[in-house]
Design brief:
Layout (H helix, E strand, L loop, with lengths): L1 H49 L7 H12 L17
Helix pairs in contact: 1-2
């Protein structure tokens, strides 16, 4: 019974971390777009309107790109320097 309790704790912790990660990506994207929009907002929204994206704020645009960007993370691996596979 004790192992099941520990396993449930690990699973719930993992699911909680995934949920926080899903929420954190768009939130950071929205905040970053809002800050950038303070300086370049008209320029960026003008370019977005040329692509047909109209009636959105910089925060909304940042949340959208933050959400999409959370699925496009790159994975990097570190190998030994000079390793040629032989």
């Amino acid at each position: 019974m004790e192992e099941i309790t520990k396993m449930m704790g690990v699973i719930l912790t993992f699911l909680g971390a995934v949920f926080v990660g899903i929420i954190l990506g768009p939130l950071v994207g929205g905040a970053a777009a809002w800050v950038i929009g303070l300086v370049f907002g008209d320029t960026i929204l003008g370019i977005a309107s040329q692509f047909g994206i109209k009636g959105v704020s910089m925060f909304q645009l940042g949340v959208f790109f933050g959400f999409i960007g959370s699925f496009l993370r790159t994975k990097t691996t570190v190998g030994a320097k000079g390793h040629d596979g032989t």
